């Protein structure tokens, strides 16, 4: 019996150490890069608004600059889809109403996360504040449809496809983040002079005890064009 | 005799057709109304009121700015008249103020007092210790309104009025003109500072508060398994390295 058979050699231990270092480093890199945090606009502040009136409303061929002449709600078909090219969002829209306590209902937490239209308000393209909501994430399924909403910037386009085949094009004016308990109800839901769109998701710190984020991220956008059906 | 018969008849009819009354109320269930405030008495006040009715439960939001800071501002739903607002030209007695008396033919009497706590009936109309006292008001409260107030929203005769205006710019309610409501108070304390008629809001029913649009998966630590494997592997690596080092020392010995 020689010593090396009774005990692993120094070389064996060294190789084992190296292998474990590689495995450990790889696992940590996977863990760290897998860590995702939703982009956050500054709290309580408004990103610089753009002069929407200066923007050409020709992003979709054949679109007219009909911002000032947005039709009444009854003439606008219900929205069925939203596209936000700047953050790669493309989602069918479900219909959302109210919870029993008067708060706005949100889409169910599903693997196939979709955004929704609050149907007790104006339709996108009608005069008034049309509202779309989507989750930032869910405990079970990870990032949600509006995970990157906080990265939307003034000037970005939002396209809302409607049941009659027409597409309403909105241009982002500003992105805000507000505590839910100081939700700017009148800014978000109050009357507007033209056709407006609000996209709402969650943001800020996560209150683990309440199972809820403390803030809402809100994108404000104005109708800048419509492509016909 | 006729009167005595008429009343029970009406009561019977109402009992027989309870759905009539209910359908009128349910048509307004969940409806939202907005009032855009215009300045009165050259107050410069601007603002907005929003009310969402769920039955007779009213969720009320008032945002206004340009008021005298540090002095109480009575605020009410006025009901029962034209559902409109006076202008500064309606100073009938030429005392320099549009008073509550002069505004009443337009906006009516107090239906609800938008107090910060406690009673919200017309009895609290001058409860100056329970009204906002800041120059910029952000008021939110949910309370029960009476049937006549609900009906005023339904038929377009509900008006939001904020009172208290420092017309002479002295920084306080003062001056020689006394209030038409309470002669012990200066007119500045009770004169309307802003007024707006409620009309159905573009938002058919305004949701209460914020939105629960997050379940929280990305808020904490993800990939916990990866972190676990990494930690165990690195501890193992350190142990193996230590053994190798000791063996090297043993070999050299």
Report what the structure shows.
The complex is a heterodimer of chains A (229) and B (253). In chain A, a hairpin with a 4-residue loop joins β9 and β10. With 229 residues, chain A is α+β, with helices and mostly antiparallel strands. The termini of chain A are far apart. The model of chain A is unreliable at 46-68 (pLDDT under 50). Chain A has helices spanning 3-6, 10-33, 185-189; strands at residues 79-84, 89-96, 115-118, 128-133, 137-138, 142-143, 157-162, 167-179, 195-207, 212-227. Chain B has one domain: Immunoglobulin-like (Sandwich). Chain B has helices at residues 2-16, 18-28, 100-107, 147-154, 187-190, 224-252; strands spanning 31-39, 46-54, 57-65, 75-79, 109-113, 137-144, 159-163, 192-197, 199-200. The chains are: A alpha+beta (229), B alpha+beta (253).
The residue fraction in helices of chain A comes out at 10-25%
CATH architecture of chain B: Sandwich
Number of helices of chain B: 6
Question: Nearest-angstrom radius of gyration of chain A?
Answer: 24 Å
Compute the average pLDDT of chain A. 83
CATH architecture level-2 label of chain A:
Beta Barrel
Q: What is the CATH third-level topology name of chain B?
A: Immunoglobulin-like
**What assembly state would you assign to the polypeptide chains in this entry?**
heterodimer
What is the helix content of chain B?
25-40%
């Amino acid at each position: 019996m020689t010593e090396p058979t009774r005990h692993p050699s120094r070389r064996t231990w060294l190789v084992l150490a190296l292998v474990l270092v590689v495995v450990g480093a790889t696992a940590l890199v996977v863990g760290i890069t897998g860590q995702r945090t939703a982009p956050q606009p500054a709290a309580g502040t408004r990103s610089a608004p753009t002069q929407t009136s200066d923007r050409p409303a020709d992003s979709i061929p054949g679109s007219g600059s009909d911002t000032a002449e947005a039709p009444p709600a009854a003439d606008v078909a219900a929205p069925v889809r939203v596209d936000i090219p700047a953050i790669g969002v493309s989602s069918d829209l479900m219909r959302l109403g109210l919870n029993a306590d008067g708060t706005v209902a949100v889409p169910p937490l599903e693997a196939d996360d979709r955004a929704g239209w609050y149907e007790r308000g104006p339709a996108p393209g009608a005069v008034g504040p049309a509202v779309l909501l989507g989750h930032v994430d869910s405990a079970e399924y990870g990032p949600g449809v509006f995970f990157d909403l906080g990265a939307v910037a003034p000037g970005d386009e939002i396209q809302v496809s409607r049941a009659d085949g027409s597409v309403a094009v909105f241009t982002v004016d500003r992105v805000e983040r507000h505590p839910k308990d100081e939700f700017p109800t009148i800014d978000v839901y109050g009357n507007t002079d033209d056709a407006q769109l609000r996209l709402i998701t969650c943001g800020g710190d996560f209150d683990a005890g309440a199972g809820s984020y403390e803030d809402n991220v809100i994108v404000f956008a104005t109708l800048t064009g419509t492509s016909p059906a | 005799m006729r009167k005595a018969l008429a009343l029970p008849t009406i009561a019977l009819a109402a009992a027989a057709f309870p759905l009539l009354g209910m359908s009128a109320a349910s048509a307004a269930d969940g409806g939202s109304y907005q009032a855009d405030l215009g300045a009165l008495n050259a107050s410069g006040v601007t603002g907005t009121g929003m009310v969402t009715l769920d039955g007779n439960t009213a969720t009320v939001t008032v945002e206004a700015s340009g008021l005298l800071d540090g002095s109480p501002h009575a605020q009410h739903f006025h009901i029962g008249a034209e559902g409109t607002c006076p202008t500064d030209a309606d100073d009938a007695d030429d005392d320099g103020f549009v008073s509550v008396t002069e505004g009443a033919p337009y906006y009516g009497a107090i239906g609800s007092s938008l107090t910060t706590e406690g009673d919200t009936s017309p009895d609290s109309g001058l409860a100056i210790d329970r009204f906002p006292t800041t120059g910029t008001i952000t008021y939110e409260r949910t309370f029960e309104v009476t049937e006549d107030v609900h009906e005023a929203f339904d038929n377009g005769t509900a008006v939001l009025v904020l009172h208290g205006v420092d017309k002479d710019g002295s920084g306080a309610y003062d001056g020689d003109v006394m209030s038409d409501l309470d002669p012990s108070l200066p007119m500045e304390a009770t004169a309307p500072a802003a007024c707006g008629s409620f009309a159905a809001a573009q938002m058919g029913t305004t949701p209460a508060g914020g939105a629960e649009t997050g379940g929280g998966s990305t808020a904490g630590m993800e990939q916990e398994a990866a972190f676990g494997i990494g930690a165990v592997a690195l501890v193992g690596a350190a142990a193996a390295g230590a053994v190798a080092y000791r063996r090297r020392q043993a070999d050299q010995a």
